[in-house]
Request: fold
Amino acid sequence: MTSFWSAWISVIILGSIFGCWWLLFATRKSQTTDSETENTMGHAFDGIEEYDNPLPKWWFYMFISTIVFALGYLAAYPGLGSYKGFLGWTSHNQWEREVESAEAKFGPLFKELAAKPITELAKDEKALKIGQRLFANNCAVCHGSSAKGAIGFPNLTDNDWLYGGTPEKIKETILGGRNGGMPAKGLNPAMSNSELNDVVNYVLSFSGRAEDQEAAKRGGEMFATACAACHGADAKGNQDIGAPNLTDNTWLYGGTPSRIKQTIEYGRAGVMPSHQALLGEEKVHILASYVYSLSHK
Ligand code: HEC
Ligand code: HEC
Reply:
C-alpha cells in the first residue's frame, strides 16, 4: 500500500470518529436544559408532537465510550492504513499460534496413529472419527460429504478404482495428487465424425446399448489403434495411468450416450490435488485409512 492510500484511509477513519465527537457536542450546545421537561419542539405531524429533551446521560456517555474504545482499538490493532498497532497482531501470527497449539495437542496422537498400518486403522473407531473430520474439511468439497462423488469426482465408497484401492495406492493418490489425461479422440486426433460415432457405439456395446452393431464393429477396430494403448485391448482400463475400465457400469463422467460421446470428442483432464504440503504425511495416513474403510466395511 502506498503512503498516499495509507494516509487517505487514516484521514477518513479519524475524520469520521472526530466528526461523531463534534456532532455529539455541537448538538449539546443548543440544549436548553439538562433534565427532562414537558417542552416540545413546537411542530406536530398528524397530531403527534416531539419532546425537546436532551439525550439521556447514560446514552451520551455510551457514545463517548465507543469513541474512546475506537481510538484505543486503532492504537492497539492494525486499522489505520499501514500502521501496524502497538500489539503487533496479525491474522497470520494468530493462525500460527493456533496451529502450534493444535500441533502440541494433537501431534502425539497423530504420530501414534500414523505408526499403525492402514488396514488396522481402518477398524479403529478413534482413527476413523479423526479421518472423517479431516475428510469433511479437506475432501468433501469435491468428493461429497458421503464420499460418493459426482460427475468428474470419483465415488470413493465403491470398489471401482481409477488408480487402485490398496492402502498404498490410496495413500499415494492423496499425498501426490493425480492428473487424469484423456486426450480428445484418443490417439487419433484426425478421427472423423462418423468414426467417432462408431467408437461411441463400441463403448456402448459393453453395456449392451449399441444402437448399430455394424458401427460398433467398425468402432472396435478404431479402438484397437486409438484407445487400447491406455484403456487396454479388453477396455478394462489401466490403473497405472488412471484410465478407467469402460466395461463396467461405473462412469466417472456419466454413462449416457451423449456424455460418453462428449468425453471421447473433447477429452477429459480430472485433477486430484496433492495434499502432502497441506496436511503432511501423518494426517494423510489417517485419511487413507478412512477412505480405505469406506469400501471395506
Ligand atoms: C479439488 C477437488 C478435489 C479435492 C479437494 C480432493 N479430490 Fe480426490 N479426486 C479429485 C478428482 C477430480 C479425482 C479424479 C482424478 C482423475 O480424474 O484422474 C480424485 C481422485 C481421488 C482418489 C482416487 C480414486 C480412484 O478411483 O482411484 C482418491 C482416493 C481421492 N481422490 C481421495 C481424496 C481425499 C482423501 C481427499 C482429501 C484429502 C481428496 N481426494 C480431495 C478431486 C479432488
Ligand atoms: C493417453 C491415454 C488415453 C487414450 C489414448 C484414451 N483414453 Fe480414454 N481415458 C484416459 C484417462 C486417463 C481417462 C480418465 C480421465 C480423467 O480421469 O479425467 C479416460 C476416460 C475415458 C472415458 C470416461 C470413462 C468414465 O468412466 O466416464 C471414456 C468413455 C474413454 N476414456 C474412452 C476412450 C476412447 C473411446 C478412446 C479412444 C478413442 C480413449 N478413451 C483413448 C486415457 C486415455
Observations:
- Residues 180-183, 185-187, 199, 203, 226-227, 229-231, 241-244, 246, 251-253, 260, 263-264, 268-270 surround heme C (ligand 2) (CB under 6 Å).
- The longest strand covers residues 40-45.
